[in-house]
Amino acid sequence: MAQVTHNHFLDTVDQVFNYAKAMKILHLNMEGDTFNGRTLQIDKKEVFHFGTTGYLGLEQDIRLKEAAKKAIDDFGTQFPLSKSYIAHPLYEKLEQLLHKLYGQPVVVAKNATLAHMAAIPVIAGDRDAILLDHQVHWSVQDAAKRLKLRGVKVELVRHNRLDLLEKKIQEISSTVDKIWYMADGVYSMYGDFSPVNDLLDLSKKYKQLCLYFDDVHGMSWSGKNGRGYVCEQIETIPPQVVVIGTLSKTFGANGSFIICGDEKMQQKIKTFGGPLTFSAQLDPASVGAAIASAKIHLSDEITTIQNELKERIDYFNGLLEEYQIPLVEKNESPVFFIATGIPETGYQLTRQLLDHGYYVNMGLFPAVPSTQTGLRITISRHNQKTDILQLTQTLAQLYPKVMEKTGNTLQRLSKAFKKDFSFQEETSEGLKYKLVEKSSIEQIDKKLWNTYFLGKGILDWEGFRFIENCFLDQVDKEHQWKFFYIQIFDLQENLLVMGVFTLCLWKDDLLAKPLVSKDIELKRKDNKYEFTSKVLSLGSLFSDGLPLYINKAIVKDHKVLNLFFRTIEDIASKNKASQIVLRDFNLSSPYDKVFQSQGFVPISMPEVCQIEEMDWNSLEGYLNTLSKRSKKHFEKDIAPFRSRVEVEILQQVTEEELDHFYELYKNVKDRNLGLNMFTYPKSVFQEMNRSKSWEFMSISIKNTPTKDSKAIGVMFCYKNGEITYVPSLIGLDYTYNQEYQTYRQLLFESIWRANKSGYQKIDFGVSANFEKRKLGARVIPKLAYIQSSSNFKMDYLEAQQ
């Protein structure tokens, strides 16, 4: 069978960024002829700058500027030669000063990204493993993942979870030489710290464990002489530790540097660390400025500068507490993350602050989970206390208004961030709207439900009663499904929203590429629930199509939609679901912006196939609906085999036949890792055998003795209200598939059966789209929207691609 088309992660990120760009809070351009660090000019308006990473403001220091100018005068705008051959004279001065600052030799690189690309391939051997903290900077992850081509094992570990790190060390220690754990010293989003001393203790306990820190956000403002957060914790760097520092950001110049506790390793990196050998060296101006900054760091003045920043950090921490603004991590770093939860609150608040004269960054997916967006505010020495006070007061004024406008509450934030923020009283939509929640289709008016879902896949009233009967009172966890039917009416009893959600266990790699699923299935041999999660999904894993009705008149009524979103979020929270999935939407869905604003990230779904042209009454009439190429396909791959097989339509079969059909289904299921779900229980097929809405299309070889006449293929078909014929599942004996073209025969025979039975259309569902298109099916792209409490599993699977 043909494989499912899979989503490209970058397409998802592109959609999210495009939304932020449309709000004019991303990819902005600064205007004006000068820049002083304190203010920016954007859209002809001067705004206070609270988004810098130059926390000490050294980039505006006159001494660094003059040193950069002199270096250009002395050596030109660049020194166009690899440093492996010859370095311009300023390099040696800089390295000597950094050696003095850190008490050991350093290797200077052009920037941190190139430093990682230079160091990581040298320090990690082919028999080593790399474990990446989930929130370690992208540049570290990118450099590490390149080593997978050499066979190096690379995996993500949940952020700052040393218990899981230790477990992973124990798991892989016998199969690798060294284990490199890579982390940030100070993390760039929340401003939280790496547990450096605990990691050092762990490296002493496990001699294979080596530590690699990116400390670019901990530089200069932290540690004695601005040596950085990590080196302040370590003092002397031991042989099993590597630290990457920066000469840009807070250091005020440009460039980066590498320090290894193992001096032999450091020399190897210097001798042949890819970008160090093949890239041009730092320009003289950057080195000159770095020398001037290094001299400041080696003087007592750096302590005074650090204290000036600390005073501002403490002041802002105090104001945020006084004005009761929800700060995600309170600490001593200059990075502050203000929780907004759903993206729409973050977009609106960021935009309104800009309109009021304050520029701040927004932390959004994929840097943070889509439901954990927020304002990333950074404090520098450029910010005066009056600026900080005015920002806080403006934020305190705007925050509750934007929260209310976007249907957000501190209670929702508390659930999203798993923190105890102070609660505010929620406005009640109950005065204007009536919310109805039910647990079974039996409790929903059949006529009302079928008004919107009759003829759509297996989404009609009878279809969901069948699904409920199949998955209630099951023994295995993966088959224990719960159903949630949601209706919202106005006070005049007009239906505004109606839909059904299913809570069940999903394989995390359900939509991953087959090779990824194949690898994960090996890990499931000992535990079939490895890499699985509870998911609250629109519809069910047994049905395709969109079981959600939204009255078009309320698309812009945020109060109704917010009630809907809060309802499903509450259901997910109470049932400990890690994801909410809204699925089966068309690419031109009118709800795209609404869903993204609520933290639902769009991803491509497997395409579906349908045939809607059924007004023919002969084989010739059917063939006339096909293209020339498809006609040739039929004449070559289907027509010659029709006389060799027997096709039967069975309403009910014996227990023995049903057992055989179930084995045929499992044959196909076990091969199809492109849509990797748990195998349906046999009770599903027993329920089909009892239902008048299902029939079995069986294919067997003609002229075979009775005792050998078992079916070589079967299609499990649902009949939706005499409107839509749904060939839902297929089973095959692959021994005969090639010889008798069983799969293609079943596809055609289901079309033939639907036409002869008077159905208006066929819903083929997903997968094998190429084969179905050749038989006249229309391939329809679909979108899903995912709201996740953590990016970890998505990032983990993306890392395996």
Walk me through this protein's architecture.
The protein is an alpha+beta fold. The protein folds into 4 domains: 62-297, Type I PLP-dependent aspartate aminotransferase-like (Major domain) (Aspartate Aminotransferase, domain 2, 3-Layer(aba) Sandwich); 311-319 and 326-417, Aspartate Aminotransferase, domain 1 (Alpha-Beta Complex), CATH 3.90.1150; 430-605 and 785-800, Gcn5-related N-acetyltransferase (GNAT) (Aminopeptidase, 3-Layer(aba) Sandwich); 609-783, Aminopeptidase. It is 39% helix and 21% strand. The chain contains 29 helices and 26 strands. The strands form 4 sheets. Strands 14, 15, 16, 17, 18, 19, 20, 21, 22, 23, 24, 25 and 26 form a 13-stranded mixed β-sheet that branches. Helix 2 (62-75) runs antiparallel to helix 11 (284-297), helix 4 packs across helix 9 (263-272) and helix 13 (343-355) packs across helix 14 (385-405). It is globular. One of its GO terms (molecular function) is pyridoxal phosphate binding.
